[in-house]
Amino acid sequence: MLTNQLSGAVMLTNQEAAILRLRRSKRVWPFKTPFTNHIRVIRGINMDTGDVLASLGVEGATAAAHALSLPAEAYGNDAQLEVMWAMKAYNHAEVYFNLISSVDPKFLKLTKSDDMIYTKFREDFPDFDIKILDAELLKSPEAKEKWRPFCNHFEHLVEDFNYGTLLRLDCEKDYTEENTIFATRIQFFAIEIARNREGYNSVVYNTSAKTKRQKKEQS
């Protein structure tokens, strides 16, 4: 299988890399998220998903965030196909970034086990830098051995705890080829819950809010 190098440590398939590149083209995806009917999250040139999520308020956005913890089967019946898996992973990332861009991340709850995940994460990884991730601390053989007990702890607590998920390296930046690695679902939750609670993702929200204010003032 042909692959593309990412961040010197992680390999993306050509299909997966193409999915990430498509983000910049703002193409409309021919499939729905698990909660499309609720918040109409379909990316496209003429639709601002961030505005839709912001209009929901904290309670509605939290309901949207809950859908991010649904098992892979909830996204369709063709998860076994590599390209569809990549599209689902992309869609999960797209919705999540729009979420933290639209609602103050400090108020978000991503799973029903957020408190447990955060507490266990900081017990096992007290000095782990979540602002800018070192891919080696997630992907090296030594790192995998250290992460394995943590991940397995949530096997029966978090749906699809080991399902492949896109994760940003620098929390202040969007998902791009250069700023994205593949991690397990529980690693994504652990790091993003910590980023939300410790204020690191607030930069994304504040930057988005500032941009929206400027556009409103100019209109």
Automatic annotation (TrEMBL):
GO cellular component: cytoplasm
Gene3D superfamilies: yst0336 like domain
InterPro entries attached to this UniProt entry: PBDC1-like_dom_sf, PBDC1_metazoa/fungi, Polysacc_synth_dom
A matching Pfam family: PBDC1
Domain Polysaccharide biosynthesis: 81-205
Protein's name according to its UniProt entry: Polysaccharide biosynthesis domain-containing protein
The species this protein was found in: Pygocentrus nattereri (Red-bellied piranha)
Gene, per the UniProt record: PBDC1
